[in-house]
Amino acid sequence: MTVLRTAITVTEDKAWEAVTAPLLADCLLNRYGGQLQPANRHDDLFHGTDFLWHRKGITARLAIRVRKAAFLKYKDEFTIREDRPQSGQKTELEKIRAGDWAAFYAYAFSDGDSLLHWSLFRMSRFDPDAPFRYMPGFGPRDPCRGHLPCRGYLPCRGHLPCRGHIPDTVTRIYRIPEQPQGFLIKSVTLCAPCNGRAIPQREHTKRNAA
Fold first, then answer.
1. Domain range spanning residue 135?
2. Which pTM value belongs to this model?
3. N or C: which end of the chain has fewer CB within 10 A?
4. What is the dihedral angle through the alpha carbons of 71, 96, 28, 114, rounded to the nearest 10 degrees?
């Protein structure tokens, strides 16, 4: 699971994920039913999968991203990594273009105690060539930021050194309304925290799949 934050550390990421991933999982199960099985490390790293979603006899890959409440004003947008120039690791966009990413993408916003808004996307309808802009500070021409925290993928001594002016990650921002019909399955603003039980919800936007 990838969590976008203004100051990223491995410890903070893990703590944030531990709190917010179950909140989003509960909302999805409350709405659609089924069972969510955490993906193994291989599926997470190489197939962009956070959960296996078992529902109505079908198993689908599910990716999850939770952003902080400060970004709620951008609820009509979502992010996709385009490049990892420092590590050379295969990115979300490359996996999507190769057809090797999750079938569904759940994208949410949280204050750390509850979810404020969530959307569910059907990735087979995602258009990577739709209009986009680069996240400020994470574009291909933006300089890197000194040293990158080690995320455990490479043997290192705590930090990966900055290599000139190459950014550590390049991230695209897409707008949901500019994606094809059927991409957005549902978008919901929550009236109360999901906790696995029926919770009143207000549907912010809904576009049925074509």
1. 10-205
2. 0.76
3. C
4. -20
Contact criterion met (CB below 8 Å) for 50 and 39: yes
Lookup: tokens for 23 = 């909140």
For residue 111, give both structure tokens. Answer: 């204050």
Using alpha carbons, select from 148, 208, 146, 144 the residue that is nearest to residue 182: 208
| Helix, coil or strand: residue 151 | coil
Q: What digits encode the pLDDT tens for the residues 36-95?
A: 999 999 898 888 899 999 999 999 999 999 999 999 999 999 999 998 877 767 888 999
CATH number at 159 reads 3.40.210
> Tokens for 176?
């949901």
**Long-range contacts formed by 192-200: CB under 8 A, 24+ apart:** 192/114, 193/23, 193/113, 193/114, 193/115, 194/23, 194/26, 194/27, 194/30, 194/114, 194/115, 195/26, 196/26, 196/29, 196/30, 197/30, 198/30, 199/30
- Note whether residue 120 is domain-resident: yes
Query: Tokens representing 60?
Result: 């689908």
Domain count, the chain: 1
Structure-block tokens of residue 152 = 């455990």
- The answer to whether the CB of 191 falls within 8 A of the CB of 201 is yes
Alpha helices in the chain (DSSP H): 10-32, 41-47, 92-97
What region does 172 belong to: left with phi over 0, alpha with psi -120 to 50, or beta? beta
Token digits of residue 44: 């997470």
pLDDT digits over 175-203, tens only? 999 999 999 999 999 865 555 443 434 44
